[in-house]
């Protein structure tokens, strides 16, 4: 019997291996794809620190002829960017926490086969994926019914729930959390909240981290909500502020002659565009490695003894 198990294990190991030539080819291919993804962003960073006149004269180069902080000095000139950074960080952190809590609890409810209204709530949550109220309907609800115009909550609540993320978490609970753990907790007298916080959440870190990353990207990159609901410059998020700055500078540069201006030719329009990309992307690139360590499976392997 042991010999049969050993033979089966060896055959499975051989099945999962790849040959050395194939390994070299795959490594080279993935390395090339990685470079093709990273090199453009490196070029963007270099351009953002380059002198605008040299770029207009000689074009883009990986090694700039002259370094300059002019683009960043113009962006950070009046201090509005720092306020927007704080607003965006608050929106991202609070929105991610609220979204993860709401979607994880709702998905846990849908994953329980014993719950009486599971079918109704599943259909109710899937409906918005098929039929949307549209932008006008969303605007009426947020502004007229909820009264959240010029409120920071108008940037948080609309993105806090996602049917797609709920379905991902529901499937994760069903596939990764053994029913035997929940049943044994019931036998020991644990309540639903105790089961959720002490059993479900610790075993669901990969799924929760994935949803948290989706929410973080959504909140950090969101500018359209501010365009619809925010007129107060004190709570404008970073993405919307950077987009307005870039649009205004480009408009002034393109219409300098009509406006009777003579010094706008020195405006670093190209470097400002690249600086905007760096400022809007760098925080996400820094935060991503902290989420990636949870993108693994098998946390529940061995949780239930056979």
Automatic annotation (TrEMBL):
Any single GO CC term annotated in Swiss-Prot or TrEMBL for this entry: plasma membrane
Alphabetically ordered keywords of this record: Cell membrane, Membrane, Transmembrane, Transmembrane helix, Transport
Membrane-spanning parts: 21-49, 89-108, 129-146, 152-173, 194-220, 272-291
Lineage, highest ranks first: Bacteria, Bacillati, Bacillota, Bacilli, Lactobacillales
Domain of life per record: Bacteria
Record domain ABC transmembrane type-1: where: 85-280
Primary residence: membrane
Membrane topology: Multi-pass membrane protein
Name of the protein this chain belongs to: Sugar ABC transporter permease
GO BP terms: transmembrane transport
Cell location: Cell membrane
Pfam families in UniProt: BPD_transp_1
Similarity comment: family membership: Belongs to the binding-protein-dependent transport system permease family.
């Amino acid at each position: 019997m042991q010999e049969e198990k050993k033979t089966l294990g060896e055959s499975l190991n051989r099945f999962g291996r790849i040959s050395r030539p194939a390994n070299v080819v795959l490594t080279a291919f993935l390395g090339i794809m990685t470079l093709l993804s990273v090199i453009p962003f490196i070029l963007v960073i270099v351009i953002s620190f380059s002198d605008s006149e040299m770029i207009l004269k000689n074009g883009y180069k990986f090694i700039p002829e002259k370094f300059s902080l002019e683009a960043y000095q113009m962006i950070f000139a009046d201090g509005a960017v720092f306020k927007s950074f704080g607003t965006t960080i608050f929106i991202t952190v609070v929105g991610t926490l609220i979204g993860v809590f709401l979607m994880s609890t709702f998905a846990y409810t849908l994953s329980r086969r014993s719950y009486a209204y599971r079918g109704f709530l599943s259909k109710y949550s899937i409906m918005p994926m098929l039929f949307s109220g549209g932008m006008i309907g969303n605007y009426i609800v947020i502004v007229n019914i909820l009264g959240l115009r010029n409120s920071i909550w108008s940037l948080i609540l609309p993105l806090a729930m996602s049917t797609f993320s709920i379905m991902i978490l529901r499937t994760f609970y069903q596939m990764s959390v053994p029913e035997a753990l929940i049943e044994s907790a019931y036998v020991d007298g644990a309540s639903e909240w105790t089961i959720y916080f002490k059993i479900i959440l610790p075993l669901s870190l990969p799924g929760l981290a994935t949803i948290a990353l989706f929410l973080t990207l959504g909140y950090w990159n969101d500018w359209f909500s501010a365009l619809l609901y925010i007129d107060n410059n004190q709570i404008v998020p970073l993405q919307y502020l950077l987009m307005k700055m870039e649009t205004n500078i480009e408009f002034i540069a393109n219409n300098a002659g009509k406006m009777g201006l003579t010094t706008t030719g020195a405006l670093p329009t190209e470097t400002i565009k690249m600086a905007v990309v760096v400022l809007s992307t760098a925080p996400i690139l820094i935060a991503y490695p902290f989420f990636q360590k949870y993108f693994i499976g098998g946390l529940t392997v061995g949780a239930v003894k056979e």
